């Protein structure tokens, strides 16, 4: 069976999607020029959430999605403790980003160091891209994915 798409409308559909992306990029502000961090310590929650999610996922056997959901939900409810705290209002994003890292099912000798280093890489990326692509879906998962890839590359180069 031939799996290639050979329809005369495909190039036009691709061109229309590209045109729509250009229009949306021009019309809506995806970049902000100021950092919205009150404190840089917010990014420390990324590796913490990653380790906790990994433990729930692999030691309790609840699964990656359910574990990330638990940690993300708990992170979102932290604002209820003190609704006037700006720090707690900003903490849900980094916690949920770290939960994506903890969804991994790796099992080797240095897995905790790998998760912590992935959390550190992701925290650096999170801080660097805080004012970029605001409102664009998938940013936290993409940052976590890139952090895990960088960490795996580092461990592959060091350990072999």
Molecular shape: globular
Largest sheet entry: none
How far is it from the N-terminal to the C-terminal residue, by CA?
40 Å
Low-confidence stretches: none
Helix content: 55-70%
What is the average of the pLDDT values? Answer: 82
How many beta-strand elements? 0
Structural class: mainly alpha
Can you offer a commentary on this structure?
With 160 residues, the protein is mainly alpha-helical. The chain has one domain. It contains 7 helices and no strands. It has helices spanning 10-27, 45-59, 64-76, 86-90, 92-101, 111-128, 139-159. The protein is globular, with a radius of gyration of 19 Å. The model has no long low-confidence stretch (mean pLDDT 82). The chain crosses the membrane at residues 6-25, 37-56, 62-79, 110-128, 140-159. Keywords: Membrane, Transmembrane, Transmembrane helix.
């Amino acid at each position: 069976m031939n799996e290639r798409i050979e329809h005369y409308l495909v190039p036009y559909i691709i061109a229309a999607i590209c045109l729509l992306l250009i229009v949306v990029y021009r019309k809506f502000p995806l970049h902000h020029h100021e950092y919205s961090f009150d404190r840089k310590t917010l990014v420390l929650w990324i590796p913490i959430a990653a380790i906790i999610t990994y433990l729930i996922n692999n030691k309790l056997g609840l699964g990656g999605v359910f574990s990330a959901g638990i940690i993300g939900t708990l992170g979102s409810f932290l604002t209820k403790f003190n609704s006037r705290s700006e720090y707690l209002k900003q903490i849900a994003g980094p916690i949920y980003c770290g939960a994506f890292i903890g969804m991994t099912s790796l099992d080797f000798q240095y897995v905790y160091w790998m998760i912590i280093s992935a959390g550190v890489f992701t925290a650096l990326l999170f801080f660097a891209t805080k004012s970029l692509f605001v409102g664009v879906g998938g940013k936290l998962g993409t940052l976590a994915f890139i952090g895990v890839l960088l960490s795996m590359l580092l461990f592959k180069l060091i350990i072999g």
